[in-house]
């Protein structure tokens, strides 16, 4: 028996590879200078869903992302790896959403898909590292959650239960939950498969450039029909309450952003010579730092 | 604003013992509450915890809300969300703090979503201050301060329009102060019915091992970063740590590169440390790393790049290849000691 799965993914700036252009002179972040990538842990969540589909071929893997039009890139990458349906949740009224407003929009989109057995997502995104959107989405859906999953141990499709291993401090837990349930994945398991060249060709019509402000929807129902696997949803499409989205739905506000400025400390530079290092060691022994 | 509502801490317990991070947060809550002129409250849930509740009070809690039920012995999200959100809704604390552990990061977001309030993850500092939104003034609100965007910025987040203002804080970030056995606080038992429908997670097996690496307790830490380059070179880090009687630490980059295992990681996503001496070898000093070690009493930075940010917080700086510097360090120490 196949399952109905939703995978939540995010396009993020590659914060691990920050270049000199990443910060503007006024101390704000220059997003344009950062390469946009598929959030690493979300790729593991997608791989987990595709592994379930390998086991139960009737499984449908739906992938959702919320973001500006260029975020469609992560959806295309999901299709190339084997997702069945992808949707971009995009609307200017989602702008400046914090984790609460984001999880509300995702909840509305998941309800639009309907009859979902399990929702998968990465534990956290590398641009914020909050790990909040998963549990908040689960709460909004009124369903259980298993966070920090490294491995799904078994799925019982008739009893509608899943057994998973989750990482905790200094160890692990094996837990069981009925459906529907949301799982957040770490990068410990499910090494992502590469995109399939055959699928990339099949979906080539989906690679219309959508980076322009005017979103060209014509490709969504392309000639071959395969592109009906890709949808664009705005606030109305997911029946979301406008007030609960974007800035107005976000209780947290950014008061101040400081770019990191190092305060020059009282540093003593030591030459890279045996004599100078010996003198430093002597000082450290004298003040009982080492000894 | 004459808000007399409390500063509340969710006390995480593992096998009936309050987590270190929760006690650290109680100490911070005490400081914030004194500044605000209000009381500190705490939520403790589990099975047979009265003695532990008394212990929690000695760190400066005025009232512990104690919920005892066999089904709360081990944390699972649904019943804990029910218990904590019900107590918050009744007591209306102005601030509520959680440890940024797997438990706190599992529970906090659910509570925030249910109560439709803000939550800031992994704060490295909490302060009290004022804020203005359009023409509305908010006084004595919580500044939730955290690094963001790969550590290139430090953001101050506020959420004054919704109560409670909530934040998670990592273990080791806030200072644990000495308990006072005579501190007068009260235990208020709270009865909340937990039924089958709440218990959606069944724990089949739970394995926790004693940490083989004790970074938190170490007085001397020698840490390696990506500048160490190879596992072979990392043995030098281990050797220096061994000679000095210290523990081996690492930056996230070194852990990600597979030079050393994750339990050695120091920093915002690893362990926060405050040793007597911290030696950073081949570590550039990202803010996440510095957030986890900047309070060390003495810091020695060894790096080939004279512009590495780590020099900005170091007491001693050596510009050079760690493969040269460390053997000289070891030689000098063996000669003196």
From TrEMBL, chain A:
Keywords: Electron transport, Transport. It comes from the Bacteria. Residues 26-219 form the Electron transfer flavoprotein alpha/beta-subunit N-terminal domain. InterPro entries: ET-Flavoprotein_bsu_CS, ETF_a/b_N, ETF_b, ETF_beta_N, Rossmann-like_a/b/a_fold. One of its GO terms (molecular function) is electron transfer activity. It holds the Pfam family ETF. Belongs to the ETF beta-subunit/FixA family. This is Protein FixA.
TrEMBL record, chain B:
PROSITE patterns: ETF_ALPHA (PS00696). One of its GO terms (molecular function) is electron transfer activity. The keyword Electron transport applies. It holds the Pfam family ETF. The keyword Transferase does not apply. Residues 7-203 form the Electron transfer flavoprotein alpha/beta-subunit N-terminal domain. FAD binds at residues 251-252, 265-269, 282-289, 303. Belongs to the ETF alpha-subunit/FixB family. It comes from Candidatus Thalassospirochaeta sargassi. Transmembrane segments: none annotated. Keywords: Electron transport, FAD, Flavoprotein, Transport. It comes from the Bacteria. Binds 1 FAD per dimer. This is Electron transfer flavoprotein subunit alpha/FixB family protein.
